[in-house]
Amino acid sequence: MLQQLINSFVLGALTALASSLITMTAYRTATLEQDELVDFIVGSVVASRLSENPNWEVLVLEAGGQPPPESKESFFPRGKVIGGCSAINYMTFIRGNRKDFDTWAEMGNTGWDYDSIMPFYIKMENYKGKHAKKYAKYHSQTGPLSVESLRWDSPFTKYFMAAGKELGLEEVDFNSEKSV
């Protein structure tokens, strides 16, 4: 009982501290009229690229509003904010599985195969990860989307990594050929 009280107090204090330290991005929001037309309805990152063309109207459709400051420390798996789950999932960037893209192309969606999509993923990246040299052909360092290695991990990570290495597993970039 006492431990729960202490945990609640510490969580509240950390939330208050986070709120005072984290500067939130203000997103322009608007309510569309019933018959208003837009050229694209997409997620945040794609919207950023599309909105570079001043002739296009882009609607970002997300389930939620401004991310609260404590979302940067949240461990709850809900992405009901602008930016979706990326606001709470440690910003993990995963392109997707080659087989999924290739299956979509086989279903008649021309241009959605993995090899056709890859140049667009690479173009949008500004990769700053620890695998930059080893997997350079799978990344760009000039795009608008920052992708990097974790800045923090659990103290137990080194033990999990050592166990994996002992089993013969290697550390890889999961956005390279090792992911497919």
Automatic annotation (TrEMBL):
Cofactors (names): FAD
Domain Glucose-methanol-choline oxidoreductase N-terminal: 59-176
Signal peptide: none
Ranges that cross the membrane: 6-27
Keywords of the record: FAD, Flavoprotein, Membrane, Transmembrane, Transmembrane helix
Short name of any one Pfam family annotated for the protein: GMC_oxred_N
Molecular function GO terms recorded: flavin adenine dinucleotide binding; oxidoreductase activity, acting on CH-OH group of donors
SUPFAM superfamilies the record matches: FAD/NAD(P)-binding domain (SSF51905)
Keyword Oxidoreductase in record: no
Xref: InterPro entries: FAD/NAD-bd_sf, GMC_OxRdtase, GMC_OxRdtase_N
Similarity comment text for this entry: Belongs to the GMC oxidoreductase family.
UniProt xrefs under PANTHER family: CHOLINE DEHYDROGENASE, MITOCHONDRIAL, GLUCOSE-METHANOL-CHOLINE GMC OXIDOREDUCTASE
Protein's recorded name: Glucose-methanol-choline oxidoreductase N-terminal domain-containing protein
